Amino acid sequence: MSVLITGGTVVTHAGRWRADVLVREGTVVGLAAPGAHEWAADRTIDATGRYLLPGGVDVHTHMELPMGPTVSADDFETGTRAAAWGGTTTIVDFAAQARGGSLVEGLERRLEQAVGRCAVDYGLHMSVADVNDGSLDEMAAIVESGVTTFKVFMAYPGVVFSDDGQIFRVMQTAAELGAMVMVHAENGLVIDVLRRQAVERGETDPIVHTLTRPPLTEAEATHRAVVLAELSGCPLYVVHMSAMQAVEEVAAARRRAVDVFGETCPQYLFLDWTHLASSEGAKYVASTPLRNREEGHQEALWTALAGGDLQVVSTDHCPFCMGDHPTLGPQKSLGSHDFTAIPNGVPGVEERMRLLFSAAVAEGRMSLERMVEVCCADPAKIFGLYPRKGTIAVGSDADIVIWDPDAEDVITVDTNHMNVDYTAYEGREVTGRIETVLLRGEPIVADGAYVGRPGDGRFLPRGRNQLLR
Ligand code: URP
Ligand code: ZN
Ligand code: ZN
Q1: Could you tell me the distance, in angstroms and rounded to a whole number, from the CA of residue 61 to the centre of ligand 3?
Q2: Relative to the CA of 239, which ligand 1 atom is closest?
Q3: Across-strand partners of 437?
Q4: Which among 9, 98, 217, 368 counts the fewest CB atoms within 10 Å?
Q5: Ligand at shortest distance from the CA of 65
Q6: Is the pLDDT of residue 403 over 90?
Q7: How confident is the model over 311-339, as a mean pLDDT?
Q8: What's the mean per-residue pLDDT of the chain?
């Protein structure tokens, strides 16, 4: 099977140029100026006036994630289908070790949930919730399976929290294995004190979620994680960053040539804590929390992204319904009278590429090439998937998104596809419309319809970080 895409402008992190693209058996086999070749193919797609971007690489999603008494609302089928609609053709989700359980069992369980159900290609990270001699010994087998990143939590004491010694041991082992550690960097012990004190004072509204997780709890934990990484020689990736003081810790480490990488998410770039103060504040409860725009966090994130201090925009997609979920029952409303019971998470896997494309082309927040770098190329490099994923080049998987760059659109739950009853970006106007999405050369979204099938997506064994200094 071959496909020829003609007349479009290919945009990668390295630049843009008018090129026809030839795809055979799912792989890009040729790029040439229109008219400068004599290629023929089984099927031709006319992309005149359109941009061709690499498929999005979202390295932080949580499909069907158990959280307290509930589970995130998208399963691998619905969540990856929504990803496809939004121009994302690769996700990296998480396998989790149960407390007292084994890493290998956690990975096997997660693969059972994902295999045969995904609309796009997928990899997995391994969350380590119980650091002990046994779990450390298992890390080698996990890496052998193509899962080369281990996530630890400095937050959520009593649930998935690890102390500094445990985190350090995971880092030492990961360093030996050529793997990387990802960290949820918030000082969970301090946050727990602040939350308890707030609840004792009768402060239970969603806005208190952010007031009890002040920026310095993120910055302090980020600093500590960076120092532990530096001491152990392990590359570190800090997830879902929202506080400018924390970003400064990553930037300072990078200036010292330490292998530290930082990620932020659309919710921190486009929303702020006023959303938590609204009557529907539960929609926006996530950790790290939305911050006070007037303190400068949002501008600092945009500057860090455009300038290179942050490398990735992923979603931390973790949807919970405001009303009752059809099969799972109450979700966000579990915390109607107490913000500490609101399941943490914001949906976004469908909106990320559209929001960032628009921010680049219409708002001038960064170049379109940089948008491709932070949404496709650098996530693929940092998570060992490049150049198979994250670019359009000879030899790459033909994961290609065809955009009409001039179309105007409005984000609304009415036309979204995630299995959740709201979007955090309701009514937001965006420039650019996704017309066609190819996964390894096969259309999965075309002519306004999803034309793929569950199981189109394949598991991606990953290599090591390709951006180490
Ligand atoms: O609030 C969040 N971020 N929910 C998902 C789980 C996590 O901590 O990443
Ligand atoms: Zn987290
Ligand atoms: Zn997360």
Answers
A1: 6
A2: 9
A3: 401, 445
A4: 98
A5: 1
A6: yes
A7: 97
A8: 98
